[in-house]
Specification:
heterodimer, A: about 130 residues, mainly alpha, 4 helices, about 65% helix, about 0% strand, B: about 220 residues, Four Helix Bundle (Hemerythrin (Met), subunit A), elongated
Chain lengths: ~130, ~220
């Protein structure tokens, strides 16, 4: 079914709440949807497996492992956002993307700022030679 | 001609125009579905900001073990891997449930939702068992600042998943009782966003808490 000949009938399904390709799915759109979720699942499984494999291997330089883990985690979050939450670059999504950017900014400020300040404080408060206990 | 006549036929007022709307304010207001999704997305982001505070607390208190056990001695990565697999698979089946809703196929919908519930419940049971095991070994939340932060962060995520499971059952009941009605579809959209967002938080969680905890 093409959009041209169903355009009028689509409105009848839910005239106040219809979005093309969202509310009334044809078989072709459904196949496309399943494929999107399958691609997302495959990428997520791959990244998860890599993350769990990293700490057990000696192939990667030890101190580099936490950095690699964080990179994989951020990549997997991106995969989830695109393939599962459907955050895209389409005009309908502009507001969602802007809100996400603001959320990421706050998250980075909270986590990065806390770690930075507390590390600095621990460094300044530590008596010479003694590890800090809380 | 009264104003009601105009609003009944003008595509701007009936919302038909929303089909052609392409953001940037052109083509009339966005459809209700898009606005509801946006509002719930704002809530999810605020929830993620709340989690970031717990993550910050955990990162700061990671080494404050007060002479007690460290993460590397406590965590069982095999258990965590099974939990991760459950949650990832449940995210996928939740996606299948979304597609079934779009296609109005209730059989597939109930099957996918039941699977999602089973996987989510397995996740919660595994986590509860892990917590009980830690407490039994004397590594409860009162043992050290590290363990307080650990139980708060992981427990808060577990609480979200538990709420999500209750919401899942509610959505199944509502689709059963009221059918694929527009307002029910919007509620289901919010539920699916919530469930996928929980999986995103879990990705950060198993990386920062478990994998980096075991490695360091």
């Amino acid at each position: 079914m093409s959009h041209a000949d169903t355009g009028q009938r689509d409105l009848r399904i839910d005239e106040f709440d219809a979005v093309p390709g969202q509310e009334s799915a044809s078989d072709r759109e459904l196949t496309h949807g399943v494929r999107t979720y399958l691609i997302g699942l495959a990428l997520a499984v791959l990244l998860t497996a890599l993350s769990f494999w990293l700490p057990t291997t000696t192939l990667v330089w030890g101190p580099g492992i936490p950095v690699a883990l964080i990179v994989f985690a951020i990549a997997q979050m991106g995969v989830h956002l695109v393939f599962f939450l459907h955050i895209t670059t389409s005009p309908d999504n502009t507001n969602n993307v802007l809100a996400l950017a603001f959320g990421v900014l706050i998250v980075l400020l909270v986590i990065g700022g806390s770690i930075w300040i507390m590390a600095n404080m621990n460094y300044n408060m530590m008596p010479a030679g003694a590890p800090m206990q809380m | 001609m009264t104003t009601t006549d105009i609003s009944a036929t003008d595509p701007y007022w009936t919302g038909h125009h929303a089909q052609a709307a392409a953001g940037h304010g052109a083509g009339g207001p966005a459809s209700k579905r898009i606005i509801v999704g946006y509002g719930f997305w704002i809530f999810l982001l605020s929830d993620i900001v709340m989690f970031s505070a717990f993550f910050a607390a955990y990162a700061v208190l990671r080494d404050a073990t007060a002479g007690g056990p460290r993460g590397a001695e406590l965590f069982n990565l095999r258990n965590v891997a099974i939990e991760t697999a459950c949650l990832l698979a449940s995210s996928f089946t939740c996606g299948l449930a979304s597609l079934s809703v779009q296609a109005r196929r209730s059989g597939w919908f109930y099957a996918a939702m039941t699977l999602t519930f089973g996987l989510g419940a397995t996740f919660i049971l595994l986590e509860a068992r892990e917590f009980a095991d830690l407490v039994a070994r004397g590594a409860g939340p009162t043992r050290s600042a590290f363990l307080s932060a650990f139980f708060t962060l992981v427990g808060c995520h577990g609480l979200h998943v538990t709420c999500g499971l209750l919401w899942l059952l509610t959505m199944m009941a509502q689709i059963f009782a009221k059918g694929f009605r527009a307002d029910i579809l919007r509620r289901f959209l919010c539920f699916s966003l919530f469930w996928h967002a929980l999986d995103i938080i879990w990705v950060a969680l198993f990386t920062v808490v478990y994998l980096m905890g075991v490695h360091a």
